[in-house]
């Protein structure tokens, strides 16, 4: 049904996550903290030039904005008040790895899950997964823990444990139902990411694998900014073979260069498909421009490997089971494991 | 009653219908569906005028798919001139941040407010002219771009509708469900759902494999009371066509009269299937517009 044109859509009645902002420890934090000049206030004027802009606080649109004074003061921007807390929390996390891809649906979350499962296969290795895809969290489903919830304790939010040595944090655990949409603009997403880093009781971790949404926007900038002092060990970039995907991945690698993140390597997913009936391999997503291999060569990064498209991978993700455990002998598993071994090797050398 | 106006409604006064292509999940084929939708609407009548706006700012794919990668946008006294994918006939206008980048590998690293500003410019500064349909391709998620888009077009709400694209597997359906909750929260009418990548035909033996499962989209549409517009299998011909559109363009550029991409698209298996999707979608759009006219009357004018 269409609504009458002069009623504005209730765009901002999106606070469907009461638990998030009612937690006492968080409320306290929000109210005592100085307003963060880098965050655009909820009620910023429509034509806000952006707080990073030279015109910040000086543009016509800034008149009446609650943030105007801070923006206009033009003093060197105060460091984010949460940064020291994040750095403190991250001192017990040894390796921080981002899983990136400019394009959506190329298998970032699936790869993240497989990588973490593979790390955690060694009982001595403490592994964590942080899902910063706020609007489309898939990690809980892929790991088979979609109905779990996050609990608050004295030392922070307890992540959800898939097994003793695999901790997971995702906005998916905070929604009343998986149907709920998280209709948040950047500043709110950034706020939650900061909380994932400083308020979650990660404990000691050998690896923290961060799954990201597609693109190069708020989530990506925030995670880089928040982990600046703690250091990101590197990023694994995922792509599919066709040019439309490679285009976006080129941009993502450009982003990594701009912000100074080391690219550990490139993984080509959905690379070729073996027909279960006649066993012939065909290319669903044709590498019309040379695929990931050429991209890796062009951009001077390592090609970690190619994983063939196997319908059982998607099915395993739907059912929340580990593809590597279910089908250890499949060509895709071999490819995954070779890539993961190589990532471990690279990380040991750093 | 005096109609409220803002720069967006003034600029888009001559746009009859706005169809927003949504999906919670990335990589399910929003851009490929948007492109096909635009091509189909374009082909629906020899005088149909169609616009396609790509608001995926950090991952624009539309220019490549329409074979206009590398084109630039020109400034005129009446605003930015969109890129016409069909050459001199100028019935298929296209706008994307991809046209504004110097190199194809440049990343657009923007936070929300900048994306918001860009979208507003796309809506107020582009000389769209008369359009029967404006198809808007969106990025995955339910965040800045989507909120900005709907906010800017709030005054022309009666001309807005949306199509949800999904792939059949559960992980994608979950995001599609979130997307549907979003449209309900903002009161955006849905014309229906399209299931993409539903099965793949082995080119060797003809066996159909459900690479990403099958039927999930139809099931969800039924449960949620949405019209199911149709399913599209993985079509390698289409993938190749949309992927390499500009590689072959150099050959086609000599005969500018014919819109080469459309001709080659018509020959793909997807084109035939999409015709039915278009028909069903237009039926829904008609129903919607009749209802709207009855209710809000003058707003449609």
Automatic annotation (TrEMBL), chain A:
Residues given in the record as [4Fe-4S] cluster 2 binding sites: 275, 278
Record GO biological process: iron-sulfur cluster assembly
Main location (coarse class): cytoplasm
Entry's Gene Ontology cellular component terms: cytosol; cytosolic [4Fe-4S] assembly scaffold complex; nucleus
Transmembrane annotation, as ranges: none
Pfam families, per the entry: ParA
Location of this chain's protein in the cell: Cytoplasm; Nucleus
Alphabetical list of Gene3D superfamilies matching this protein: P-loop containing nucleotide triphosphate hydrolases
Positions that bind [4Fe-4S] cluster 1: 48, 62, 65, 71
Keywords: 4Fe-4S, ATP-binding, Cytoplasm, Hydrolase, Iron, Iron-sulfur, Metal-binding, Nucleotide-binding
Protein name per UniProt: P-loop containing nucleoside triphosphate hydrolase protein
Gene coding for it: NBP35
UniProtKB/TrEMBL annotation, chain B:
Major subcellular site: cytoplasm
SUPFAM superfamilies, sorted: P-loop containing nucleoside triphosphate hydrolases
A GO cellular component annotation in the UniProt record: cytosol
Subcellular location as annotated: Cytoplasm
InterPro entries in UniProt: Mrp-like_CS, Mrp/NBP35_ATP-bd, NUBP2/Cfd1_eukaryotes, P-loop_NTPase, YlxH/NBP35
Binding residue positions for ATP: 24-31
Keywords: 4Fe-4S, ATP-binding, Cytoplasm, Hydrolase, Iron, Iron-sulfur, Metal-binding, Nucleotide-binding
Binding annotation for [4Fe-4S] cluster: 202, 205
GO molecular function: 4 iron, 4 sulfur cluster binding; ATP binding; ATP-dependent FeS chaperone activity; hydrolase activity; metal ion binding
Keyword Methyltransferase (UniProt): no
GO terms for biological process, alphabetical: iron-sulfur cluster assembly
Role this protein plays: Component of the cytosolic iron-sulfur (Fe/S) protein assembly (CIA) machinery. Required for maturation of extramitochondrial Fe-S proteins. The NBP35-CFD1 heterotetramer forms a Fe-S scaffold complex, mediating the de novo assembly of an Fe-S cluster and its transfer to target apoproteins.
Membership in a protein family: Belongs to the Mrp/NBP35 ATP-binding proteins family. NUBP2/CFD1 subfamily.
Protein name: P-loop containing nucleoside triphosphate hydrolase protein
Organism: Collybia nuda
């Amino acid at each position: 049904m269409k609504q009458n044109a002069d009623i504005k859509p209730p765009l901002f009645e999106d606070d469907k996550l009461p638990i998030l902002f009612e937690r006492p420890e968080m409320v306290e934090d929000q109210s005592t903290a100085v307003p963060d000049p880098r965050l655009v206030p909820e009620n910023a004027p429509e034509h806000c030039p952006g707080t990073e802009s030279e015109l910040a606080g000086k543009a016509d649109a800034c008149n009446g904005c609650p943030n105007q004074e801070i923006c206009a003061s033009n003093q060197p921007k105060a460091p984010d008040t949460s940064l020291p807390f994040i750095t403190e929390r991250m001192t017990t996390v040894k390796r921080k790895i981002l899983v990136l891809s400019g394009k959506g649906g190329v298998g970032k979350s699936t790869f993240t899950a497989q990588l973490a499962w593979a790390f955690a296969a060694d009982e001595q290795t403490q592994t964590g997964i942080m899902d910063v895809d706020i609007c489309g969290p898939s990690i809980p489903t892929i790991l088979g823990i979609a109905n779990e919830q996050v609990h608050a304790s004295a030392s922070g939010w307890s992540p959800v444990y898939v097994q003793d040595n695999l901790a997971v944090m995702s906005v998916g655990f905070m929604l009343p139902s998986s149907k709920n949409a998280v209709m948040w603009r950047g500043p709110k997403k950034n706020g939650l990411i900061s909380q994932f880093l400083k308020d979650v009781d990660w404990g000691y971790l050998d690896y923290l694998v961060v799954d990201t949404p597609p693109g190069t926007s708020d989530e990506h900038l925030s995670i880089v900014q928040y982990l600046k002092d703690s250091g990101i060990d590197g990023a694994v970039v995922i792509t599919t073979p066709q040019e439309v995907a490679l285009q976006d991945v080129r941009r993502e690698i450009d982003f990594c260069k701009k912000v100074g993140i080391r690219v550990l390597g490139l993984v080509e997913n959905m690379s070729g498909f073996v027909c279960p009936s006649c066993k012939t391999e065909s290319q669903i997503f044709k590498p019309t421009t040379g695929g990931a291999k050429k991209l890796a060569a062009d951009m001077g990064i390592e090609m970690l490997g190619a994983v063939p498209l196997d319908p059982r991978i998607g099915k395993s993700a739907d059912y929340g089971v580990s593809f590597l455990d279910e089908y250890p002998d499949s060509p895709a598993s071999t490819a995954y494991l070779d890539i993961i071994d190589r990532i471990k090797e690279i990380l040991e050398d750093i | 009653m005096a109609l409220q106006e803002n720069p967006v409604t003034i600029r888009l006064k001559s746009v009859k219908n706005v169809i927003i292509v949504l999906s919670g999940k990335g990589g399910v084929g929003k851009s490929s569906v948007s492109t096909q939708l635009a091509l189909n609407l374009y082909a629906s009548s020899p005088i149909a005028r169609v616009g396609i706006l790509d608001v995926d700012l950090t991952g624009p794919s539309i220019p490549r798919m329409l074979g206009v990668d590398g084109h630039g946008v020109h400034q005129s006294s009446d605003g930015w001139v969109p890129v016409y994918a069909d050459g001199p006939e100028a019935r298929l206008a296209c706008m994307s941040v991809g046209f504004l980048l110097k190199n194809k590998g440049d990343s657009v690293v923007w936070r929300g407010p900048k994306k918001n500003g860009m979208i507003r410019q796309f809506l107020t500064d582009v000389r769209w002219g008369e359009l029967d349909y404006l198809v808007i391709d969106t990025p995955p998620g339910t965040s800045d771009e989507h909120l900005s888009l709907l906010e800017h077009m709030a005054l022309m709400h009666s001309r807005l509708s949306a199509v949800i694209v999904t792939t059949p597997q559960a992980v994608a359906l979950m995001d599609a469900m979130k997307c549907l909750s979003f449209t309900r929260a903002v009161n955006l009418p849905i014309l229906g759902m399209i299931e993409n990548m539903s099965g793949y035909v082995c080119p060797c033996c003809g066996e159909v494999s459900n690479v990403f499962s099958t039927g999930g989209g139809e099931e969800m549409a039924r449960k949620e009371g949405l019209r199911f517009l149709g399913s599209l299998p993985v079509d390698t011909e289409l993938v190749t066509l949309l992927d390499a559109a500009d590689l072959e363009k150099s050959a086609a550029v000599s005969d500018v009269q014919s819109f080469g991409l459309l001709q080659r698209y018509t020959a793909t298996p997807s084109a035939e299937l999409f015709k039915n999707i278009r028909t069903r979608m237009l039926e829904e759009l008609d129903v919607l517009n009749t209802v709207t006219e009855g209710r809000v009357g003058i707003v449609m004018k």
